[in-house]
Amino acid sequence: MRDRAARIRAGLTGTGTEPGVADPRIRVDLAHLLALEGQAKRLSFLPRQPARSILNGRHASRLRGRGLAFEELRNYLPSDDIRTIDWKVTARTGTPHVRVFSEERDRPALIVVDQRMSMFFGSRRNMKSVTAAECAALAAFRIFDQGDRVGGIVLGDEAIAEIKPKRSRTALTAFLTALSDANSLLNADAPAVPAMPLNRVLEAVARIARRGHLVLVFSDFDEIDDTTHRIVASISKHNDLMLGLVSDPYTESIPQGTRIVVSDGVLQAEIDTGDKGVHSRLQDFAQGRLAEVLDWQRRYGFPVLPVSAGEDSVTQMSRLFGLQGRR
Question: Pfam families, alphabetically (predicted)?
Fold first, then answer.
């Protein structure tokens, strides 16, 4: 295959993939993403979660759900809940009045997917970019099926694709097309370019999702700083924010006693993990970043879902939302 270097570092050599056929563990196309629609019905992004869901019963992880829109002010009827009485209007008019609200028909969902070169890595099953794309597609299908508007932002190294949330199959397909297009650009032989800053995309999310959005971000959060902390905290104040922290088993537990060759596409260096000091520093660096993002759940009160590129996307998304084993 053209991406032999990627296949080698992903441990996918000798798998028998037909020449000229893209390996779905390295790259996904639109047909692959569309085929996930049936599997998405097992997930739920509604406020009331299943008993085994990671979002259930945890104050920091509950979803607000759809909001309430004011509909009318009318006279009180015996069957009305007294909690809906508008006491100011009642006092002014001398007769009991209630405020009537209706649940919003839908709410906008914005799905942010990282498809930069830092995501083009995998050691066991998928590239992180593939896992992020699959999880985002599953989320998009389920949210659309629940009747909400779906849109998203796809982040590449040099470009950003933005699809405005709409309640239409056309918008959903446009999002998945942008996702597959960005994924197809990832290549082991791609020239080294400065990566698009994640903070730039998160700032765009903050401008778009001012209030009442469901925002999902699937990324390895390769570059985070104090500004990232500030932006995600701001987004979560008036929206339902969920982060899918995509990682690879290799970075979660770096093997000792091996030699790793790392490259930026131009220069390369060999790292000997047999050196205990080198291995310890690498392990601390990798685990420290993951721990920092996972700690956002405690600090800011929004759920952080650990997603591994070493496991089937449908299986772990089902487990995270408490639906594993259900038909």
Answer: DUF58 (PF01882)
pLDDT in tens, 106-117: 689 999 999 999
How does pLDDT run across 195-243, given as a tens digit for each residue? Answer: 889 999 999 999 999 888 999 999 999 889 999 999 999 999 989 999 9
d(CA 76, CA 96): 5
Cα 43 to Cα 208: distance, rounded to the nearest angstrom? 25
* Residues 6+ away with beta carbon under 8 Å from 231: 199, 202, 203, 205, 206
Q: Residue 280 has which token pair?
A: 């310890």
- Cα separation, 39 vs 139, in Å, equals 10
The answer to whether 321 touches 44, Cβ cutoff 8 Å, is: yes
Which CATH number is 4-14+24-61+106-320 given?
A: 3.40.50
276 Cβ contact list (under 8 Å, min separation 6): 256
CB-based contact 189:5 (threshold 8 Å): yes
Average pLDDT taken over every residue of the chain: 80
CA distance 26 to 29: 10
Give the Å distances, CA to CA, from 149 to 5, 31, 34, 325.
39, 22, 18, 28
265 conformational bin, left if phi > 0, alpha if psi -120 to 50, beta if neither: left
pLDDT band at 284 (very low <50, low <70, confident <90, very high): low
Per-residue pLDDT reduced to its tens digit, 160-174: 999 999 999 999 999
- The domain limits of the chain are 4-14+24-61+106-320, 69-102
Is the per-residue pLDDT at 12 higher than 70? no
Instruction: Give the pLDDT of residue 288.
Output: 67
CA distance 215 to 240: 6
DSSP 204: H
Q: Is the dihedral of CA 69, 73, 79, 80 positive or negative?
A: positive
Question: From CA 263, how far away is CA 268, in angstroms rounded?
Answer: 4
Report the C-alpha gap between 313 and 70 in whole angstroms.
Answer: 40
